[in-house]
Write a structure and sequence with these properties.
It is globular, with a radius of gyration of 16 Å. The chain contains 7 helices and 5 strands, in the order E-H-E-H-E-E-H-H-H-E-H-H. It has one domain. The mean pLDDT is 81. Strands 1-5-2-4-3 form a 5-stranded antiparallel beta sheet.
Length: 185
């Protein structure tokens, strides 16, 4: 069942990808949780044959909840998901794998990882919405958080196990084909 953007009542702050990229210091460097929304994210999943139906915890104003996480440093973690290398961000790795296999985000295939990573960064700058809040982190906190609020790209989320197995397989295929010859997986 969708909850619209009423999660803001739970103490979350919002920042766009463009604002996060331009003013990273505006995000506090404290521990907390975050939810990543992508404009038309449900369409990306549909093009990737990932049927999530209406299972997203939060959705609103054209943005769809795709990923949830917790961290000891919100600023650093969110920067990593926006401008870091895809292989160091589970969120970006999942999106790149969907693009690589299904052309879910832009219409053409790119042979070089650097080009895909750059295009994804530009896409996220224009299409990412981040909700974050300061919150105490417990030992099993991220697993519990993902179970409760995980998005379709969280591998430990509540979404259909078949979809998760498919996403894991796509990520593995992407890593093997793009990096296997250079960095054995």
């Amino acid at each position: 069942m969708h909850k619209d953007i009423s999660f803001l009542d739970d103490g979350f702050s919002l920042v766009t990808g463009a604002s996060l990229q331009r003013f990273p210091e505006a995000i506090p460097a404290f521990r907390g949780i975050f939810i990543l929304f992508v404009k038309d994210g449900q369409e990306i999943l549909r093009k990737s044959n990932c049927n999530v139906g209406d299972n997203s915890s939060y959705c609103g104003v054209g943005y769809f909840h795709l990923f949830t996480g917790q961290t000891f440093d919100l600023r650093q973690e969110l920067q990593q998901h926006l401008v870091g290398m895809a292989l160091t961000s589970a969120f970006k790795t999942a999106l790149i794998a969907l693009q690589y296999e299904h052309l879910s985000i832009w219409p053409e295939m790119d042979a070089l990882m650097g080009i895909m990573d750059r295009k994804l960064g530009l896409f996220l700058k224009d299409n990412l919405l981040v909700a974050y809040k300061h919150e105490k982190i417990s030992k099993n906190g991220e697993a519990d958080l993902i179970e409760r609020l995980g998005g379709p790209l969280n591998l430990g989320s509540k979404f259909q196990r078949a979809q998760l197995a498919n996403l894991k397989a796509l990520q593995q295929k992407f890593r093997e084909e793009m990096f296997g010859p250079v960095f054995p997986v």
